[in-house]
Structures are given as structure tokens and as C-alpha cells.
Specification:
Elements (H helix, E strand, L loop, with lengths): L2 H4 L6 E7 L2 H10 L48 E11 L8 E16 L2 E14 L2 E13 L17 E5 L3 H10 L10 H7 L9 H15 L3 E10 L9 E9 L2 E8 L2 E12 L4
Antiparallel strand pairs: 1-3, 2-5, 2-7, 3-4, 4-5, 6-8, 7-10, 8-9, 9-10
Helix pairs in contact: 2-3
Length: 280
């Protein structure tokens, strides 16, 4: 399929509803070893990724575990589909045990030439409404790449941060995160597939999981900060069970740089815009 055929997806729109189930929230909390917020309390940042996951029958999945025909997104057509990054605006917290509406729109489809071959970028905007008000806007970049050997190191060394946290991405953590986000992508839990078919040396840590842990480290280091915007971009994969670090530093008032990586270099970079709230 040519890029002009893919362009037919631009402007495609979908509206869906979900309930911020307390049962699922407890499972996310257990996966991340966090206390579970109670009904009526704020959903922690980026936990919304566990919701609005459309169920697809096993017979409708492709060899990599993604929907074979793409569903709302364009079909992969023998390309590997990855989440490259996001830009998230936080207007107000989503609340546990409430109903939420999500309006998704495909904003752009663009073919680019990368170092490893042709890349197709799909930009999707998700807007989450609670009680009729916009609570969250999440603009995601999905990349479709031709099967090529994975890039496992970065020339950019891991920076020294004002805060940092060591993460041990166990296979159990990856499996449980796949489960709570209903993510069938086999690179995160299927050892024979990820090593023999896609050529990685082990299970791949989810980019959204890295981003969630990165933002959590910031909020732990800045308990009075209110996150207004978070952007992140993947640089290279991280492989389980090798430990990695998340950390960052404040670069100016209301703005911080964050990153994740290990001795092989930076794997994810991001930026946080925030305001300081007075303690009660």
C-alpha cells in the first residue's frame, strides 16, 4: 500500500466510552507497586493508557500480536508497529470509578526515510472528556517500520540528574503491564518470538511503561508540582531484565527534562511543564 493510500486515514474519527474501573485501577497499582487511589480520587498520570483498549479476537491478530487489519489505525502490512512518543496535556485529573468519553482523530500519516529504511508515521489525537469537560489530551506518534535489526545502543550518554530511580524490568512486570493495558504485542512477553523473529536479545520494555515510571519519578521528587504537559520520545529499546534508570533535572522555572537509559546510553527523552502548588 502506498503512502497516498494510507493518507485516506487522515481525519478518521472514533468516539468511545469507558469506565475508570476501580478493579482495573487496583490491578494497575499492583503492577506498579503503588497504592491504589480510591473511587472519586484522581487517577495517577498516564494510567489512562490501561483504558479504552478495544478488544480484538485472537483470530483477528497478526503475527506480532497487533490487530491484523489495523482496526482504527492503518494496517501494518508486514511492518513492525511501535509507539514512538506522545504529547500529553493535563487539564484536570480523571477520577476513579467514573465514566469517560474518548474522541480519537487521526491527524496525519506521513512516509519518511530513516537510517533503517522507510518509516510511516501516524499521528493520533485522543481527547478524554469527563462530565462534559476536557480532562486530558494525548497526541501519539505511531511508527511503522520495515523489519530491520533493532538499534540497541545510543551515542548519547545518560545524563546525571537531580533525581533518579533505578528500575528492574522483570518479565513479570512486563507481562502484567501488557495484561492491564490489554497489549498483545508479542515483543513484551513472548521470548521465542522476540528473539528469533524480531531479533532482540530479550523481552522489550514498553515505551509507555518507561514514560509512566519516568513521570512517577518526577512527581515523587516534586510532590507539590502539578504536571501540565508531558512529552516524550523513544530513542532505542530497553531490554528485560537489565536494570535502567529514570531521572531528570529542572532546567528553568516550571520546566524539567527527563530521560531513561542505562550504560548503553539514553533510551527515552522527555520534557515536563509544571506549576508549583502551595502545600495545604
Amino acid at each position: 500500500m502506498s503512502s497516498s493510500d494510507f493518507a485516506a486515514w487522515i481525519g478518521r474519527r472514533r468516539e468511545s466510552q469507558d469506565h475508570i474501573s476501580f478493579t482495573l485501577v487496583k490491578r494497575i497499582a499492583a503492577t506498579l507497586s503503588e497504592p491504589a487511589p480510591q473511587p472519586g480520587e484522581a487517577l495517577p498520570p498516564l494510567w489512562h493508557w490501561a483504558f479504552f483498549q478495544e478488544p480484538v479476537n485472537d483470530s483477528e491478530l497478526g503475527p506480532d500480536g497487533h490487530p491484523a487489519l489495523g482496526g482504527f489505525l492503518p494496517p501494518a502490512h508486514n511492518r513492525n508497529r511501535m509507539w514512538a512518543g506522545s504529547r500529553i496535556d493535563f487539564h484536570q485529573p480523571l477520577k476513579v470509578d467514573t465514566d469517560v468519553t474518548c474522541v480519537s482523530t487521526i491527524l496525519n500519516v506521513e512516509e519518511k526515510q530513516g537510517r533503517t529504511g522507510s518509516l510511516l508515521f501516524v499521528t493520533v489525537r485522543h481527547e478524554f472528556f469527563q462530565d462534559g469537560d476536557l480532562a486530558l489530551r494525548d497526541e501519539q506518534d505511531i511508527v511503522y517500520r520495515e523489519p530491520t535489526p533493532p538499534r540497541l545502543s545510543s551515542t548519547e550518554a545518560l545524563a546525571e540528574g537531580q533525581w533518579q530511580e533505578r528500575i528492574e524490568p522483570t518479565p513479570t512486570l512486563l507481562f502484567r503491564y501488557s495484561a492491564v493495558t490489554f497489549n498483545g504485542h508479542r515483543i513484551h512477553y513472548d521470548w521465542p518470538y522476540v528473539t528469533q523473529t524480531e531479533g532482540y536479545p530479550g523481552l522489550v520494555v514498553h515505551g509507555p511503561l518507561i514514560a509512566t515510571l519516568n513521570l512517577r519519578a518526577f512527581t515523587k521528587a516534586h510532590p507539590t508540582a502539578r504536571v501540565q504537559r508531558f512529552t516524550f520520545r523513544g530513542v532505542r529499546p530497553l531490554i528485560s531484565p537489565h536494570p535502567f534508570e529514570v531521572g531528570g533535572r529542572v532546567i528553568e522555572k516550571g520546566k524539567a527534562q527527563v530521560w531513561a537509559g542505562n550504560q548503553d546510553g539514553t533510551a527515552q527523552i522527555g520534557e515536563i511543564e509544571f506549576s508549583e502548588e502551595a502545600r495545604p
